[in-house]
Amino acid sequence: QEYMSLLVSNDLDRMILVGGQNAIELTIRWGQAATANGLIDAWLDAAVSQNDVESVLDFAALNVRNKRLWTSVKLIDRLMETSALSVSQRFVAQSLRCVALAQLREMVTDPGNIKTELALAEASWVSSQVSADSLESDARQALLEAKQLFSGLDQPTREHRTLRAQLEKIRLDTHKTAKD
């Protein structure tokens, strides 16, 4: 928390995003889930209050691509709770959230396919907080909301179309698909 205060006091707003996430990931690698849980709330508050919506969404998009999923989900959740988002921004946020939740569900249900130490630690951390069924339910809800938001976009951008294509590839279980 002192680190976050130092960054805020020196107007290093974007560093809050990176530095806070790195501190959280380090604690989960060390197996200190309780410490990570304590850090994440302070990080989320500082990250969302000190950065504009587009910066937060860009950071989340990069981190979802890099498989840094749970902190991205939490960041998007906090952003949607505390910020007024346009339809475009809500679509991006829900799409990223859906992709991350679906990937987290896969990690939690099939940890044998996890390839990195960080991903293993993240899967353990996530499964200590939520069930695979809850992840699937949340992903399904995000998918539905993202599809509704996409239909409300006047002129979808390339980013919107790319996210929509990613949503179409999501398979939440063997019986239901993203098109159901």
Describe this structure in words.
- The chain is mainly alpha-helical and 180 residues long.
- 76% of the residues lie in helices and 0% in strands.
- It is built from nine helices and no strands.
- The chain has helices at residues 2-9, 13-29, 33-50, 53-65, 69-82, 87-109, 117-127, 132-151, 158-169.
- Helix 4 (53-65) runs antiparallel to helix 5 (69-82).
- The longest helix has 23 residues, at 87-109.
- The protein is globular and about 45 Å long.
- Mean pLDDT is 89; it is low at 174-180.
Percentage beta strand: under 5%
**Overall average residue pLDDT:** 89
User: Radius of gyration in whole Å, from Cα?
Assistant: 16 Å
Q: End-to-end distance, in Å?
A: 44 Å
The outline comes out as globular
Order of helices and strands: HHHHHHHHH
* Helix-and-strand structural type: mainly alpha
Q: Low-confidence parts lasting 5 or more residues at pLDDT below 50?
A: 174-180
Number of strands: 0
Provide the helix percentage.
over 70%
How many DSSP helices? 9
Please give the largest β-sheet: none
Write the layout of secondary structure elements.
Layout: H1 2-9, H2 13-29, H3 33-50, H4 53-65, H5 69-82, H6 87-109, H7 117-127, H8 132-151, H9 158-169
Task: Write a compact overview of the structure shown.
The chain is mostly helical and 180 residues long. It is built from 9 helices and no strands.
Pick out its properties.
single chain, 180 residues, mainly alpha, 76% helix, 0% strand, disordered C terminus
